[in-house]
Amino acid sequence: MIDLTGIISISGQPGLFKIVAQSKNGIIVEGLSDKKRVNVYASTKVSTLSDISMFTTGDDKPIEEIMTSIFEKEKGGATIDNKADDKAVEKYFGEILPDYDKDRVYVSNMKKLFSWYNALQTTGNLKEKGAEGEGDDKAKAIKAEDKKAAVKKTNTKDTGKAKAVAGVKKTTGVRKTGTA
Q1: Does residue 35 lie within any of the structural domains?
Q2: How many domains does the chain have?
Q3: What range defines the domain where residue 57 resides?
Q4: What is the pLDDT of residues 151-180, one digit of tens each?
Q5: CATH number at residue 101
Q6: Which residue stretches of the chain are H helix?
Q7: Is 25 helix (H, G, I), strand (E, B) or coil?
Q8: pLDDT tens digit string along 10-35?
Q9: Which of 10, 26, 66, 115 could lock 41 by a disulfide, CB 3.0 to 4.6 Å apart?
């Protein structure tokens, strides 16, 4: 299945974004296409792609599964253009998700899905969960070792400083004004 964690859509903003960090007033995101970083405030409406699903005649289907079926059908290539004719978009979407609810899923929803898929495909962010997990475990192990080495280095530096300044008592945050 396609991994869409950390990828969001911001209402009123074109394109998709990747969550980079958390700021004091919201989150910092990076545009997938232009790589520009922007601060998104907490009051802005944000939707994570992994939380979005589409209506079917049975249970709702997560967008990750729909993108996986598009990925398998196109063999990793681009899908139909989102500016194509409405009939062509409906026909293609019917091949991908045959049991979609025709009353509640609009052509605009289908076009938005195809534009998101094409954006992820062109930027190289269509990754499967299983294949990415193994590399992440190795990368996390290497990062953990690096952090341990950095902690050891800082600990040795700190102990040297502590011995030199052992008799001095610091008063951080206290301001002496001279008046009582």
Answers
A1: yes
A2: 1
A3: 7-123
A4: 444 444 444 444 445 555 555 555 556 555
A5: 1.10.10.1650
A6: 63-74, 86-96, 107-123, 129-164
A7: coil
A8: 998 888 999 999 988 899 999 998 89
A9: 26
